[in-house]
User: Fold prephenate dehydrogenase from Roseovarius nanhaiticus.
Amino acid sequence: MSRIYGRIALIGLGLIAGSMSLAIRRAGLAGEVVGYARSEGTRDIAREIGLCDRIEDTAAAAVEGADLVVLCVPVGAMGSVAAEIAPGLKPGATVSDVGSVKRAVIDAVAPHLPDGVHFVPAHPLAGTEHSGPRSGFPELFDNRWCLIVPQEGADRGAVDRLEALWQGIGALTDEMDADHHDLVLAVTSHAPHLIAYTMVGVADDLGRVTDSEVIKYSAAGFRDFTRIAASDPTMWRDVFLNNREATLEILGRFTEELFALQRAIRTGDGDHLHAYFTRTRAIRRGIIEAGQDTDAPDFGRARSG
Ligand SMILES: NC(=O)C1=CN([C@@H]2O[C@H](COP(=O)(O)OP(=O)(O)OC[C@H]3O[C@@H](n4cnc5c(N)ncnc54)[C@H](O)[C@@H]3O)[C@@H](O)[C@H]2O)C=CC1
Ligand SMILES: O=C(O)C(=O)Cc1ccc(O)cc1
Assistant:
């Protein structure tokens, strides 16, 4: 594949930046990928494993001459990182991010960027429970969505170029408004993560069932919860603090439905339970029929066929 950017700088060398660097370099989409991480230990590991073409010791040195700068730090750190890199940005460069929340990141980053620099926020809907510079792998984005959130008056060329980069590393792209993105993600990702955290916390608190019994007899549902609940605490703290309204709206609806199901169990209302589970089963079948089950082995074929 041909080169899309001359130099790309990745700020924050964890799961997402690491996976991006490996995938971009494998596909030859940039002349050079430069990395920066705040901690010296992370920079040392990144150098040792050859994560980027070059690792710089300051954010200013990393963004110098970069055509694309991608902020890959926790959502709560995006604003301060933007302030730090702003003076060193090349005129005409594009700044993007990979944050799981969009409105708060846009509000925190945009005011720091100088005129003549394009800001194109994005969010790859791909990840794992692992974090840090050793956790990245180049296939992470294969067949996963990356949502691009162009700002009003955005330069079309800058948006198209960023979309081409994400497509070049295997992702499917769509464009979405920031507030709508935050509501969609609250229901599909943020609230489910909180529910997983809560369920694992409940199991841990339960005096009559030991932790070792929970681990030993974990059925599939709880196993999935424990995987999700092992995700990075800083990242998820920042997601909830920065997508507060949408998450609270979804959790409000969730607790109402949970109370209704709780009541149906207490009163022995099997019809209610059966009707509810029938409705929810249809959602899963809809995902499969639409060819959107990205974990299915034939997902690639379902898309192209
Ligand atoms: N992990 C996941 O599954 C996904 C994460 N994201 C988003 O991607 C971003 C990065 O996440 P990961 O790569 O998973 O995280 P990570 O924890 O693997 O890496 C984050 C990096 O940012 C650095 N960092 C933390 N605070 C910083 C600060 N104040 N200033 C400078 N650097 C700082 C860390 O040292 C680390 O190098 C987050 O905004 C997250 O919401 C998006 C999609 C999926
Ligand atoms: O590991 C999982 O199950 C995930 O849900 C990964 C993930 C986490 C955060 C995002 O913003 C997008 C994807």
